Amino acid sequence: MTRGCSVAVGIAAALAVAIPGCGPGPGPGSADVSVTVTRDFGARQVRAITESRAPGSETVMELLERHLRIGARYGGDFVESIDGLSGSSSHLDWFYYVNGVQAPQGAGTTAVHRGDRIWWDLHDWTTTDSIPAVVGSFPEPFLDGVGGRRYPTTLECAPDARQACAEADHALVGLGIRVERRSLRGGSGGGTIEIVVGTFGELTHVSAARLVAGGPKSSGVYARVAAGGRRLLLLDPHDQVARTLAAGAGLVAATAAGNGAVPTWVITGTDVAGVDAAAGALSSGRLDDHFALAVEDGQYLPLPLDPSS
To answer: Domain 153-303: which topology?
Structure first.
């Protein structure tokens, strides 16, 4: 394992490095920063902290240590416990996300920026140790961006998704987010945070939608698509099908090319009604602390699906 100011890739990159002297240089300080601590893919909240202003040049690790009791391992490199809560097996660890994007490096080298929503979650990574993007920090990353950089938002709409796109557009604009709305292209080539909207069948040429349809090992989203897009398979944390949805089922999910990359959000479903239902869930009240969200008959189903539900 690499020491010093660098972090090994894979699972090590998802955990926290606390190394003195490796933080960023002086900064202007950050406003309205929040820290959420959960377990089991957001199913249970442990702590929630909001700061109206954080010191300049503070790192995610320093922010965490100011408020919570932290236990470390591997010579102090990685977070083992938060407020006494720690992993109990070789596949149960802490991961963190900033504005809905899994951090590409340790918390000791990740700067806190204005508006950041920092989310720590203790979960089982048997299926995958890479969940590059989640929806549970909405309206981030659309408001404050990724890594301290704000990006334009584009809303790409399939021909049959007019109502869903109008609803998504309204939700975003109502939050002060400027949106460029256009027909479905399958990818802008970077430089924006994209939201693609359409049925599974309409999104088959969209790379992010194909990743989502392929399940957690390809996208970090605990769902798969079957029957030519007419079935949505909801998975549990161990990649087992826990429930199958058919007509009228929708999905709100996010993925990216890798940890730290600008994400693409996918609002989709088994049919137009399902897409409309998914677009109707685009609010912090519905998405808070969820990695992804399925919708059926007015029922909201956080993913991965709790096996006991």
So the answer is: Chitobiase; domain 2 (3.30.379)
